[in-house]
Automatic annotation (TrEMBL):
CDD domains: LTA_synthase
Name under which the protein is recorded: Phosphoglycerol transferase
GO cellular component, one term: plasma membrane
Entry membrane topology: Multi-pass membrane protein
Location within or outside the cell: Cell membrane
Keyword Chloroplast: no
Organism, scientific name: Chromohalobacter marismortui
Domain Sulfatase N-terminal: 188-474
Superkingdom of origin: Bacteria
Length: 523
């Protein structure tokens, strides 16, 4: 019988140590160089206890470790953590159901290949050790149970499963169907700008420098809302739009979706959102974004909630100048905002004086590295391809320039401008600083009747944006509430103020009454 070589033994042990160190560094959000001392300690322990030594082999059977599947599941979790910074199972489930075509994450496809290769190598190393050390044959069975019990991915799945059989209805009891009881004599136009991943946390100059300066300047022209936290199931783009326009977290359809492996044909069909209400008020509704609207169900959501026009990469890229000026996701923000300006001009020239609402989404600050446009590079200098603060600054500068142009042309008369992030940023170059900060979303308003240089501090979340925007437009709501949102102009407490963020999140994981209500009628 040919004995295993010493080099194979130590290569396997060293590689396992590096994988263990990488896991610790990822979970603790520390520098990945930390995996080197962890690997060194692991190898030292292996040398002390003679792991994998030929004398420890008591059988020649080709056994398979029990821990292979649990380890593979951990690699899936590590990939998701490396991609997004925090596992959001709701986002994973929703994107699988709503569609993942035409996404701009090609770099993550390569990362998935690398993670798969690294995971397979670790499985091979563990198999080698189990087959060559009878002690590991016993230990790894216990380790398999430990790996299954403490994998955050499986923990989230177990919570989802538990909610299916839980009969609680706390969230449903706090849901308020939006009801407009009075409308303004002159209905204002609405321009709502979602700034991709541009959270208000970047306003901390001591930590993030001048990245947020243009947005601070814009805030001085209107009212800035501070303290908006992020509920579960609101942490990706479509979910952020649903939270701010429907007043609810985007809890996925889950098991209620009959065709589990086919794209959704509706998003929250039983939920009255801002588009539904404004459509009933005679508004012309437009959505524009640089990415494909087929990704993550955006087109289905907007067309199902009263929007007349839904435009994304597929509809706009033929008009891009110069041709081919696109990033992985789609249009650069300077192109998109130029096109949005043209469309607003046409909407303002409507002979019927029909009010309009324009919703647009930027792309520049999309993690992990951003997609700053050429006009930003001309203004800010060379982009290193990594620093997300460059792209955050680009976003603010472009939005400020866009609004200045509309203002000069008189296109902001009788118009409410809302600027908000779609959600908190996922993993990027500033991740350690963001994780340590008191994070909150961007939300500000500008326009006639909106006090300038005013700051409203409330413990709230993005679901509270929905009734707040409607009230700022002059609409009066029954109970000054919509969905789970409560107007930030009202004295009544928001749900976050009354119960706390964790309480709401706990109920979201434990019950499905509101989920069933929102998705009623989905196929």
């Amino acid at each position: 019988m040919k004995m295993p070589t010493v080099s194979t033994r130590w290569l396997s042990l060293t590689y396992m140590g590096l994988c263990l160190g990488y896991t610790f560094a990822t979970l603790a959000i520390i520098n990945h160089w930390f995996m080197l001392p962890v690997a060194a300690l692991w190898v030292a322990i292996a040398w002390r206890f003679r792991w994998g030594h030929p004398q420890q082999r008591s059988s020649t059977r080709r056994i398979w470790p029990w821990s292979l599947i649990p380890l593979a599941l951990w690699w899936i979790y590590l990939y998701l953590d490396d991609s997004f910074g925090k596992l959001d199972l709701g986002a994973v489930i929703f994107h699988l159901q709503a569609g993942m075509t035409e996404h701009g994450g090609q770099r993550r496809v390569w990362a998935a290949f690398v993670f798969t290769l690294c995971g397979l190598l670790m499985l091979a190393a563990v198999t080698y050790l189990v087959r060559h050390d009878h002690r590991w044959r016993l230990w790894e069975r216990v380790a398999a149970i430990f790996l299954l019990a403490f994998n955050p991915l499986l923990f989230g799945l177990s919570q989802r499963g538990a909610s299916v059989v839980t009969e609680g209805h706390w969230l449903r009891d706090h849901y308020r169907s939006p009801d407009i009881v009075a409308s303004p004599n002159t209905r204002p136009n609405l321009i709502y700008l979602y700034l991709e991943s541009t959270e208000r946390t970047y306003a901390d100059r001591d930590t993030f420098g001048d990245a947020y300066e243009d947005l601070i300047a814009l805030g001085k022209r209107g009212t800035v809302f501070e303290g908006l936290k992020q509920l579960d199931n609101t942490g990706w783009t479509t979910a952020g739009m649903v939270a701010t326009q429907c007043g609810v977290p985007l809890i996925p359809a889950g098991l209620m979706h009959d065709n589990q492996f086919e794209p959704l044909d509706a998003v929250l069909p039983h939920t009255q959102c801002m588009g539904d209400l404004l459509n009933a008020q005679g508004y012309h509704l437009t959505y524009m974004g640089g990415a494909s609207t087929r990704f993550a169900g955006k087109k289905v959501f907007y067309e199902g909630h009263g929007f007349d026009t839904v435009l994304g990469r597929d509809e706009l890229e033929d008009d891009v100048t110069p041709p081919g000026y696109l990033n992985d996701w789609g249009l650069y923000d300077d192109t998109l905002l130029n096109m949005a300006t043209e469309r607003i001009r046409k909407l303002a020239e409507d002979d019927n004086h029909q009010p309009y609402a324009m919703f647009a989404l930027t792309l520049a600050a999309h993690p992990p590295f951003g997609n700053p446009s050429q006009s930003c590079r001309d203004n800010q200098g060379k982009f290193d391809g990594v620093d997300i603060l460059y792209s955050v600054k680009c976003t603010g500068w472009l939005v400020r320039r866009f609004l200045k142009r509309l203002d000069r042309e008189g296109l902001l008369d009788n118009t409410l401008v809302v600027i908000s992030s779609d959600h908190l940023s996922m993993k990027n170059s500033e991740w350690p600083q963001l994780v340590d900060a008191k994070r909150e979303n961007t939300f500000m308003m500008l326009g006639k009747g909106i006090p300038a240089a005013e700051r409203i501090q409330r413990r709230a979340s993005m679901v509270d944006v929905y009734p707040t925007v409607l009230e700022a437009m002059g609409f009066k709501l029954d109970s000054r509430a919509a969905g789970l949102g409560r107007s930030l102009f009202a004295e009544a407490p928001t749900l976050v103020e009354k119960y706390g963020l964790e309480t709401i999140n706990d109920y979201m994981a434990q019950e499905d009454a509101l989920q069933s209500y929102m998705w009623k009628g989905v196929n």
